[in-house]
Amino acid sequence: MILGRIQVPPNVRKGEPFEVRILVQHPMETGYRRDLNGQAIPLHIVDKLVCRVGGAEVFSAELGSGIAANPYMAFYAMADASGEVEVEWRDNRGETGRVSAKFSVA
Amino acid sequence: MKRRDFLKRSGLAATSMALPVLAQQPPPQRFQPVQDIAPLLAQLTGGATPQPGGIEVQLPAIAENGNSVPMRIKVDHVMAPDDYVTAIHIVAERNPRPLVASFHLHPASGRAEVSTRVRLAGTQKVTVLAELSGKRFLMTQADVLVTAAACLDESM
Fold this sequence. Notes:
Number of helices of chain A: 0
Number of domains of chain B: 1
CATH superfamily of chain B: SoxY domain
Helix content of chain B: 10-25%
Structural class of chain B: alpha+beta
Oligomer: heterodimer
CATH topology of chain A: Immunoglobulin-like
Shape of chain B: elongated
Distance between the termini of chain B: 55 Å
Strand content of chain A: over 45%
Order of helices and strands of chain B: HHEEEEEEEEE
Number of helices of chain B: 2
Strand content of chain B: 35-45%
Structural class of chain A: mainly beta
Largest interface: A-B, 32 and 34 residues
Largest sheet of chain A: 5 strands, mixed
Number of strands of chain B: 9
Order of helices and strands of chain A: EEEEEEEE
Shape of chain A: elongated
Radius of gyration of chain B: 25 Å
CATH class of chain B: Mainly Beta
Strand order of the largest sheet of chain A: 2-8-7-4-5
Number of domains of chain A: 1
CATH architecture of chain A: Sandwich
CATH architecture of chain B: Sandwich
Number of strands of chain A: 8
């Protein structure tokens, strides 16, 4: 389980975009670094991230090793009814993580 | 030996030892070469020619640390159900893997705006390619000066 954080405004207006901010706790090893014994540290990155609002996909990302450690992303989403923003991700070793946040439509 | 002589000689010895060190050239810095990103862009666009402009890229003019450079991308386009920004690609020509990230948007995103933090292996042009529905493309390049590049040491 990879840890992460999400930030969504608690109250949003119907049909107006609101910002979703995500921080995933991950080293994002590039595969180009070496440890103290000179052994190559293998590639270890979060490569896929999906965000759904009320079950419908609003944003997805394919990340490479060019994303900084502890990937941060901010993007926009819209909703017509109160619900939940859920974000799921997966790294290249098959580990997954998930965060969600509730919001209400005013 | 008199104290005065000793000081003279040790001073000489010290300078003669220090001189070769000073004369040494600093080790040549190994830079990532700039790669030709045209094939990658052609692969992303499927051969279509991107229109210049239409994208606002916020990058610091000088990034002190290439390991984490904040970046904000705004595409100036509507997000209607039949005409919207489907994807945003970030390409860094000096990175060992030039395709940094691809973001896929939907009409329900509401606004084509994404921020993230990228790694940059040196001073370079960062290319942002936005894909609009109907296989149309917008492209903008932004210059960024990176003082300490990411992954310089082992990447060659």
